[in-house]
From TrEMBL:
UniProt keyword list: Signal
The protein's name in its UniProt record: Branched-chain amino acid transport system substrate-binding protein
Family matches, as InterPro entries: BCAA_transport, Leu-bd, Peripla_BP_I
Domain of life (superkingdom): Bacteria
Gene3D superfamilies the UniProt entry points to: 3.40.50.2300
The keyword Signal belongs to this UniProt entry's keyword annotation: yes
Annotated signal peptide: 1-24
Family from the record: Belongs to the leucine-binding protein family.
Location of the Leucine-binding protein domain: 26-378
Length: 384
């Protein structure tokens, strides 16, 4: 595996004759999937990191970014390298759930806080002695699935077929779907799986279509989510198609093309910020991020994965501001205090919601963090 390191450092200069104490930089280690199946998620993350401020309350921040190639073993190697060689105070990553799950144990073993950039609820739930070192600025599946099923009920859908990744991401969505469907009076008629690197899902889609469900739910992330979407349309499926927020990026739209039109999914509000009511407190933060990001990367380039990275920065920044007056970076005492500050986050408005952490909740979002969106004419349409 080829590992690339991108190091961005904030340099603080002092005027001649002015005595300035020399403190160690806060080192933020990042392991993301810049290559492999998770690349369409990680590249916007890397771009977002490039616009992160390099200083917080006068303290220099250094970001060290490594590519784990969408490989769990690569993510583990990167975590150890970031902690052992770069002396990271906190780790961000990885981009996909399978590469993030093994990092949870490492965070607990090393007492280095981990801020997940992947979505699986199992990364932070249930909270225990291991997961207490891991946090996530991405909404949990339970909330998102609830919003999706609310839409199904309102649309009079009585049966659903499922196809999803054969990994931790897909399994967590399948479990959530199964748990929430029955109490709402919706039958699960077919369950199929596929790999993120597969090139055909025709056999699975035909089995689902034979069950004649009113809707199909696809649990996938990034561009691989386009494969079952296109296959359903090509095979003449006429029911509703639901996806997860894992497909909320331009590359999915480009790959799925016109076959994506009509797809429905629950997602954080940032994706449709301009369509939100002016009274929504999230709107201003989301639009500010959109303007910052698109000023550098072009109109239409902002995505939910940019928002996930930015909100992770907002969470970290808030915790660092609370920790820096108490402890110096580069020490176990600092890392422990930073963990505590993350857990004490209260009413933090991000581009995706309003966050309040607790010892039992290391996500902290309420229902304001989820809206329904539909793909329409190659873009995102807010579903009121």
């Amino acid at each position: 595996m080829k590992i690339k390191a991108f190091i961005a450092t904030s340099v603080v200069c002092a005027a001649v004759g002015l005595s300035v104490p020399s403190y160690a930089d806060v080192v933020v280690g990042v392991t993301i999937s810049l290559t492999g199946p998770g690349a369409s998620l990680a590249i916007p993350t890397k771009n977002a990191i490039d616009i992160f401020p390099r200083e917080i309350d006068g303290q220099a921040i250094k970001y060290v970014v490594l590519d784990d190639a969408s490989d769990p073993a690569g993510a583990v190697r990167n975590f150890k390298k970031l902690v052992d060689e770069y002396k990271a105070d906190v780790i961000l990553g990885s981009s996909i759930s399978p590469a993030t799950m093994p990092l949870v144990n490492l965070a607990a073993e090393t007492h280095v806080p981990l801020l997940s950039l992947a979505a699986s609820s199992r990364i932070v739930e249930p909270q225990d002695e291991v997961r207490r070192w891991t946090f996530k600025a991405l909404q949990n599946q339970q909330m998102m699935m609830g919003v999706t099923i609310d839409h199904m009920v309102a649309s009079n859908i009585k049966s659903v077929g499922y196809i999803g990744f054969s990994d931790a991401y897909g399994e967590s969505w399948r479990q959530e779907l199964t748990t929430q469907l029955e109490p709402r009076g919706i039958a699960l008629k077919a369950v199929e799986h596929y790999g993120s690197k597969d090139t055909s899902v025709t056999a699975q889609i035909l089995k689902i279509m034979q069950a004649k469900p009113d809707a199909v739910f696809i649990a996938a992330a990034g561009t691989p989510g386009a494969l079952p979407q296109r296959t359903l349309i090509e095979r003449g499926y006429k029911g509703a198609v639901y996806q997860t927020y894992g497909i909320a990026n331009e590359k999915f739209l480009q790959l799925a093309g016109k076959d994506a039109d009509g797809a429905l999914f629950s997602v954080g509000p940032m994706l449709v910020a301009e369509q939100l009511p002016a009274s929504n407190p999230i709107r201003a933060v989301a639009l500010d991020l959109t303007h910052k990001y698109e000023a550098k990367y072009g109109k239409g380039s902002a995505s939910v994965f940019v928002a996930n990275a930015w909100d992770t920065y907002l969470l970290l920044s808030s915790a660092l501001k609370a920790t820096l007056p108490k402890q110096k970076p580069g020490t176990e005492a600092f890392r422990s205090a930073l963990r505590d500050s993350l857990e004490q986050t209260t009413d933090l408005v991000t581009s995706q919601g309003v966050m309040t952490m607790s010892p039992k909740d290391h996500v902290g979002y309420d229902k304001r963090a989820a809206v329904m969106v539909q793909v329409k004419d190659g873009g995102w349409k807010y579903v009121e």
